[in-house]
Model the fold of this input.
Amino acid sequence: MKGFRMKASDYQRLEGRNTTMNCSHHSWSPILLSASRTACIFFCLGLLPLVFGPSLRAQPDQPADGATVKDGKAFSVRGQELEVLKKVLKLPFDVEVYTNGTFKVAGGKERELHEGQILRRDGWILNTDGSIEPVFDHVTQETGQLLVVRDGEPASIGEEMTFPNGLTIFPDGWCNYPSGAHARLADGQLFGLDGGAVPAKDTATLIDGVVVVQKDGMMISLNPVNIMGMNDSTKVYGTGFIQSPDGTMFPLEEGQTVFIEGRASRS
Done:
C-alpha cells in the first residue's frame, strides 16, 4: 500500500504496510499511523491513494478527508495537511462540521467532536483508543445486546423493527432478511436505518506497549502470549506483530493502528 507523512509538528510518523483488506467492493489496505495518546492519533482513508514524502501536498480544491479537533481547535484534514476550520465543512453522509468543533449528521442533533477524534469522510469516527464506529444512524449488536444508534446515542431495541428494504429485526436477536433467510444476528453486524448492511471495520492498536484490538464491536487487550484471529484471517499477536492473510508479518509501533476488515455483511 501507499502512505503519507504528516508534519512532525502536527503528528508523528505515519507508515503503510503490505497487507490487504476488503471493504464492500473496494480494495483497502490497513493503515498504520503513529501518534501520542494525548494528541490526535491519526487520519487516513483506505480508499485514497496516498504517497510518502512532501512532494504530494494537498491542493486547496481537494475534497477534505475529514475533520479533527486539536488543542481545542477544529481542523479540516487534506492529505498530510491540517487547516483551521473557518467555515462549515460538508462531508459525505450529509455530515456538516462547524468551526466550533461540533457537527451534525443529516440535520440531526448537534454533537461535539472531542479532542483527538477523527471524523472521516467515509462516515466513521476514529477514537483516541483506536476504536471506530459509524457516525451515521445505525443498528448493531454488541455483546448480545441489540442497539439502535441515533445521533450517536445508543438505545436498546425492545420491539420488532421493520426497515424499508424488508429487513425485520426482533428483540431476541433474530432477524428476517429481505432474501427470506431467518438467522440470529452476530456481534459486530451493522445495518443502516434503511436496512442495508454496513461493512464492519476492526482495528488493532499498540497503546503503552499493550496491543488493543477492536473486534466485532468489543475492545480486547492482549497479553504477550495471546494471538487474536480476525474475521478476514489476519492474526494479531500480543507481542505486537500482525500477520496478514497472505502470511506477511510486520510489527506495530507505539501508537500505531491498523484497520482490518470486520465481520462479513449479509443481506
